[in-house]
Design brief:
Blueprint lengths: L1 E10 L2 E6 L5 E4 L13 E7 L2 E6 L1 H4 L11 E7 L2 E6 L2 E10 L9 H4 L3 E7 L2 E6 L1 H6 L6
Parallel strand pairs: 2-10, 5-7
Antiparallel strand pairs: 1-2, 1-8, 3-6, 4-5, 6-7, 9-10
Length: 143
């Protein structure tokens, strides 16, 4: 078990935690411009803090359908030198969590398995620890 700072969030009402080291900031995404011929999980592009970021539909990448069109909260991260805004339902708190290995026998499935790096509990609710860079990189695989 190790302890580290994490950002708590929800995606499709599922509780997740993202290591704080992977978080550049949290944002409300303004207008999104479609990006034709982009990966189906790319909602589009947005201008944030004088830079263009790729807006990523985390629901799609996780096999949970598509994010509602009114979702604007996002975790801003940099993966391989590119800025991404990862859409989430809500952002909660930044806390130090005790991270354990994922319990043996817990079926994560093909979408969650490659991105979950641990588990924790906060206020009695189980949390999956998500490697947000691995989530973004799943766009390089076949959808």
């Amino acid at each position: 078990m190790n302890e580290a700072l994490h950002l708590l969030a929800r995606v499709a009402d599922r509780a997740i935690a993202v290591p704080a080291a992977m978080v550049d900031s949290v944002v409300d995404v303004p207008a999104i411009v479609p990006a034709p011929r982009a990966h189906p999980a790319v909602r589009g592009l947005a201008a944030l803090r004088s830079r263009v970021v790729t807006v990523v539909d985390s629901w799609h990448l996780l096999g949970l359908g598509n994010a509602p069109l009114d979702v604007r909260r996002a975790i801003l991260t940099v993966v391989d030198g590119h800025h991404h805004a990862i859409l989430v339902d809500t952002l909660h708190d930044v806390l130090t969590l005790a991270v354990e290995p994922v319990p043996a026998g817990m079926p994560l499935g093909p979408r969650w398995g490659p991105i979950v790096v641990g588990a924790s509990v906060h206020d009695g609710e189980p949390l999956l620890i998500v490697d947000i860079a691995a989530l973004v990189r799943t766009m390089g695989r076949a959808d």
